[in-house]
């Protein structure tokens, strides 16, 4: 049995957990003071040694990303925090910033110092206004306490932080689209190379990191590399937030060492809703291939999930029980990708449009056997041929679900309808809700 | 330009403050578009012209940016933006039925506004609150663990002019214009308002405390 390891979430239940005073009382900003006494290169090395990997989905080693910046030429370089959490199923950065925004601000300060940045940005999606309020306040409090601004704690180091609200576009979670958006443009991805480390924001060297990656930095500096590497597996070190949602008794945030299994997590979460059977789940959001009950014991680390044919992604564990129609689930995700495709490249723009059309007719029983093959062929035209990972992600749930549940697709064709009752997978009784609606009216 | 002198002076002073946050002027465009929504209730032709002047772009260039993002409204928006999440997880947990009933009750569909200008309805994409599914957002505040009944009560409160209170967020939902001003980066003094921590947010922490588990020192 793996124990939970609350680090980022350790203060979330404190009174006014989002306030500077609460954070400082729990030792907050101690790591910043320690970091300012270290050489920047030593901080980069510590994060490399910790094995911390990007918590935003791709899992790229964070310290290595910092190390890609070219030598200082005396001109600006930037840190941009990707707080555009929008991948379906992913809901870890929002509670982090709502409950403990200062851990992110402290991480920003330490990271900026380490990479020689004097102006950092936090790009938060615009559809979470209370999160934005908390971040604005946290940054203001940090300035007032001397954790940001000029000559931080007498170190001679200056840092400004701007919290920037997006305006509703999933694609802005892609790091180069985020940079274009932050520059005041349509959020469309850029051709790589050059990578942001060389030419990022305003064509200057830039590090783009996820909220949880940056929030993990203060604890690594404060408690040490050995402490961090004592958690996790051989190549997936440390702790992470596992976000359980869907048909389980106690959905929510479970902070655990990488390598914990879904079976362990579901046990902690009180089991499946009403004792029903697990049907399928996403290990890391809607862009990661589906798993089933065969993967209950797969260690949730980057290597094991990859070896089993999916991706750890953002540890967004969306759990669906036997009452759920997989065609409906996949059709709805596909509608999302069609809506969010930025239009820049043809395979994604046109491909997601047709995938959505085909899935919609299949879901409602108007599809044909040939449509199933057409889905796979269209996915084949998108995967690896689109400009960025959005197009690839759009195909994941489709190809994996056809492989795992082909009979269910065929059943929609042969029966000419969806064989599932939508009411059974809802959390409330459709009948009762109709009745109360009348009573209400 | 049809802003009166006072409105224009205020807009220009706010715009200067926004532009000062960035090393390059054009980066101010997204917050400036939120700012014009806070005055006009949508991205108006006047607002586009205003933004263009501030960041030295053409109106066409500003429009091209504004039309890319779903939060920028091209028609006068309702006082309350009511979104029901119908992405996969919320839809399956009941979001589809909530959407059906809310839409029928309001008599409008996706991206449409009630005749009294109170509510603009939206089928939302994932709003990063899946552990509270099914979710509804009103002016970008969280209404967690919705049922059709609860959702209709929120909608009725809005239609009948009563304040509505989110489940995680401030004491009451501010208007679309007020919220747009916050998104332009102006604090409204409500960051400390709170409805108490939600159970899903601290479920893992609570279990760890019960079991005496902690990350080693």
What do these coordinates show?
- Chain A is an alpha/beta fold and 441 residues long.
- Chain A starts with 19 loop residues before the first helix and ends with a helix.
- In chain A, helix 5 (93-99) crosses helix 6 (101-115) and helix 13 (326-340) runs antiparallel to helix 16 (389-415).
- In chain A, 44% of the residues lie in helices and 11% in strands.
- Chain A has 3 domains: 20-229, Rossmann fold (3-Layer(aba) Sandwich), CATH 3.40.50; 239-316, Ubiquitin-like (UB roll) (Roll), CATH 3.10.20; 326-423, de novo design (two linked rop proteins).
- In chain A, strands 3-2-1-4 form a 4-stranded parallel sheet, sandwiched between helices. A 4-stranded mixed sheet of chain A has the order 6-5-8-7, with helices on one face.
- Chain A is built from 18 helices and 8 strands.
- Chain A has helices at 20-25, 30-36, 40-50, 62-67, 93-99, 101-115, 129-144, 175-182, 211-223, 225-229, 262-268, 302-307, 326-340, 346-363, 369-382, 389-415, 422-425, 430-440; strands spanning 78-83, 119-124, 160-165, 206-210, 239-246, 252-257, 278-282, 316-321.
- Chain B is of the alpha+beta class.
- Chain B has a 5-stranded mixed sheet.
- In chain B, helix 2 (29-40) packs antiparallel against helix 3, helix 2 (29-40) packs antiparallel against helix 7 (176-183) and helix 3 packs across helix 4 (59-66).
- The model of chain B has no long low-confidence stretch (mean pLDDT 97).
- Chains A and B meet through helix 5, helix 7, strand 3, strand 5 and strand 6 of A and helix 2, helix 5, helix 6, helix 7 and helix 8 of B.
